[in-house]
Amino acid sequence: MGQTSRPTSRRSHGALLISLGLLLGLASPAWAVELLYPERNTTRELSVSTPEGQPLGKGSLTQWTEGDRLHVLLTYRYEDGRIIEESAVFLTQPELVQERWNWRERREGRTTRQFTFDFGSGRAVGLSREGGKTRRYNERLKVEPGRTFAGVGFALVAKNLLPQLRQGEEVKLQALAATPKPRKVNVKLSREGTETLTLGGRTLTADRVVVHPEIGLASLVVKAPDTNLYFTGSEPPVMVGGEGPVLEPGDPVVRTRLLPPRRAPAAARRQTPPTR
Question: Which helix (H) or strand (E) holds 258?
């Protein structure tokens, strides 16, 4: 761009300010995340293991749409008896906006941790029980709709930002997280190459998207590890796995993998009438 000459009058100075304002407005990042890949109703099974591959449990993913809203429910059943449920609601039009997130961990029928974030009001409530002590949280956080997400919300965001991430772009958003105190943190999404995954006995190459917390001075107290998300190179892309802490930054890191759909027995397939 050529250099702008120095203004010689108030009028030209004002015009320059207006021009710069328009330029900055056009150049400012658009935080809206467009839903490039509409979701469909589905139920899939998941595996849960350590990063080294030692089995920890099994899970399921169920999602369904109601008008312009997408509902997602994840359930994990660990071999040690824990049951973890995560649910979320998203507005999908005209852009992707997370409206609600709930996460609950139970052991022997008793809730040990639970957090609920209402993105509309910014209200974040939760509890954690450990060593006979119960801690309760009730916070109000400033939420920017369409720019702030939690939990499974980042899987949807990363999936729909893949075209940009594959071009080498980095996208900065915000996350609501339990540390265990609910707080809002900045995160950066980037694509860090590809990796070979083994799913159901077959191997595939997947894009690795990293969700990196940028928590500033809080890092002196809270050590927040990255979360890795893996997507196929197909169109539309499919998230086939992830790796990150269970919930809080100090939790063990676990690996999840999407299991291939179960095929009906051959006899049942032969009895299915052909589509006309």
Answer: strand 253-258
Query: Could you tell me the pLDDT band of residue 261, with boundaries at 50, 70 and 90?
Result: confident
- 185 vs 204: CA distance, rounded Å: 33
pLDDT at residue 32, as a whole number: 85
Contact criterion met (CB below 8 Å) for 30 and 95:
no
Q: How many other CB atoms sit within 10 Å of the CB of residue 76?
A: 20
Report pLDDT for 200: 76
Q: What is the dihedral of CA 270, 59, 80, 199, to 10 degrees?
A: 70
Q: Is the Cβ–Cβ distance between 55 and 77 less than 8 Å?
A: no
- Is the pTM here over 0.85, yes or no? no
Nearest to 126 by CA among 114, 108, 112: 114
Q: What angle do CA 53, 58, 60 make, to 5 degrees?
A: 130
C-alpha 135/C-alpha 8 separation (Å) is: 64
